[in-house]
Amino acid sequence: MEEELVITIYGDTQSKKNRYRFGANGRPYKPAFVKEAEDQALSQIPWEMQGLRLKSPAVVFSAIVPKKSMAMDIDGAFTTVLDYLVKAKVIQDDNIRNFNGPKLIVPAEEGDHKAMTIKLYPSGKLPLAEVMKWAQRQ
Question: Residue 118's CB: how many other CB atoms inside 10 A?
């Protein structure tokens, strides 16, 4: 059986794009609300996964969002989650050299809360059962 590491981050994982502000000196800075959201997300990554520095794992991304949030920027949310995984050293980096395994983004599901779930397969191979589960739903 393929090893599967699962991380679920509850709460706001909106894109960090356009959320930075510029100080009087013209330099960008992270506002307190962005830092708080980042700290909240990082605290949800299991400590035993922090520091793994996985290279090119296979990944399955899924999201649960309230109906009113169905128009959220999904690629921005996933990019933000990848930044959290890099910061927690779960993955080495999110560049192509270090994060070039297969990626499956499954359709978002409607729910009563926001959550992003990331399944990581360190071998770099997506289990066929995982792919078929989603292919059969279409």
Answer: 22
